[in-house]
Amino acid sequence: MSPLVLLLFVAGYFLLLIAVAWYTSRNSNNESFFIGNRNSNWMLVAFGMIGTSLSGVTFVSVPGAVGKEAFAYFQITIGYLIGYIIVAFVLLPLYYRLNLTSIYSYLNDRLGIRSYKTGASFFLVSRTLGATARLYLVVKILQDTILSGFGIPFWVTTIIILIMILLYTYEGGVKTIVFTDTLQTTFMLTGLVVCVGYILSTMNLDIGSAMHQMNEKGLGKIFYTNPDSKLFFLKQIVAGAFITITMTGMDQEMMQKNISVRTLKDSQKNMVTLSLIMMAVIMLFLFLGGLLYLYSESLGAVMENGKYVLNGLDVNGDKLFPYLALNHMPHVVAIIFIIALISALFPSADGAITALTSSFCIDILGMKRKDNWPEAEKKKTRQRVHLIVALVFLFFVMVFHWVNNPSMIGVILKVAAYTYGPLLGLFSFGIFTKRKIADKWVPIICIAAPVLCYLLDVYQKYIFGNFQIGLELLLINGLITFAGLLIISKKAN
């Protein structure tokens, strides 16, 4: 399909976002940017957060991973459900009771200033790496399918995308994102449903017959029962629960939207609704993945050296969905795919840039703690930080481009295991104990825990034999952090 046609549709989509941003950001201030003036509609937040939680990586990587791991990812999704319920009824009441703008302020009140700064710093590192990994995958697809045809280099493509995001988040922040995320989630889910419908229709299949073919090829397997495998269902469910607790409940980006809702009760409705919709949507993504492999085989794809090859090209993993949508589906489906892909990109990137700006301004610069800081100066500082965060995103996207990992969802979950573990330990220690810690030692404990986990991960074969540590590394990281905090603590008076 002509890159020019695709580019025109992308431009039209972007103009629509700008129009929504202009309308929703009128009369915005710093409170609008940080927490939407605590006036967001919970239904809009719940629906929009689907796009934020899934991102372009889910849109491409989850279907692509079905060829290797079948429907194993749904085991993690079951854990997500458990995690969302814990966030809704344990963490959200705490955040609302303390009337927080930044959730890491809790660590300052409970543990001390260094614990607070350490927690915020780990969020900044984790969200930066995770969000830029997501951004890289979608930018690469846009580069390969559209902009490379015009001779535009990858770094210019990345700058164009970041400028687009800055234009519609610069003023309104969370107030705007609640609405743009809703719009983008609608487009993303529409693309998902259209692609599923097209393949079923083309192959003359219904859902039942498609699942039968997937099961015959081993693509529909959900539960893995070998305790030594990293895909063992208990490991995956536990890991999924803690991934959600940390990457949602202890993540400023995700909680920033939740605490922008008027009341705790509405915020809890948002979280429970999100968890149920997420299970259905991820199952649909997995079903699409199975269909993509069936469809590719009907077109002549074969397995060579552990990889799917179609027409002489490697279409394994993340490459499968974009290749089929843009080369073996009608033009209208290809356009819908590109719009859906961009819609999956923006909610994760715009929210991350906004949340990182908020966290740096509030937690690192202390914007909320300095009453003598004029409001106009706060706004200028916040806007400068917003631009700097975008430049940091540009740098890390280029790093991922140079590394060029074949499956970004694995990279993102691995990054989360190392960087969210200390947050899990800090929040758990604060909530479930009443002990007082030696705050000055907290940064050392929180750095040592991921280092120990890295060594454990690298040498696990020599330590555990056939037993494989998978995503539960996050829980181990949190436990090491918790144990370290226990060592440097004493009974409170």
Task: Please explain how this structure is put together.
The chain is mainly α. The chain has one domain: Sodium/glucose cotransporter, CATH 1.20.1730.10. 74% of the residues lie in helices and 3% in strands. Strands 1-2-3 form a three-stranded antiparallel β-sheet, with no helix packed on it. It has a two-stranded antiparallel ribbon with strand order 4-5. Helix 1 (3-24) packs antiparallel against helix 8 (174-202), helix 4 (73-97) runs parallel beside helix 10 and helix 18 (442-458) runs antiparallel to helix 20 (473-487). The mean pLDDT is 81.
How is this fold's topology laid out?
Blueprint lengths: L2 H22 L5 H6 L6 H28 L3 H25 L7 H6 L2 H33 L8 H16 L4 H29 L4 H10 L16 H17 L2 H7 L5 H35 L3 E3 L2 E4 L2 E2 L5 H8 L3 H34 L10 H29 L4 H12 L1 H12 L3 E2 L4 H17 L1 H5 L8 H15 L1 E2 L3
Antiparallel strand pairs: 1-2, 2-3, 4-5
Helix share, percent: over 70%
Supply Rg. Answer: 22 Å
Which fold name corresponds to the CATH topology? Sodium/glucose cotransporter
Distance between the termini: 71 Å
| Adjacency order of strands in the biggest sheet | 1-2-3
Element-level helix/strand string: HHHHHHHHHHHHEEEHHHHHEHHHE
Summed up, the domain count is: 1
The dominant shape is globular
Question: From the 3D coordinates, which CATH architecture would you assign?
Answer: Up-down Bundle
CATH domain class: Mainly Alpha
In oligomeric terms, what are we looking at?
Answer: single chain
Q: Count the strands?
A: 5
Q: How would a crystallographer describe the biggest sheet?
A: 3 strands, antiparallel
Low-confidence stretches: none
For this structure, what is the CATH homologous superfamily? Sodium/glucose cotransporter
Q: Helix segment count? A: 20
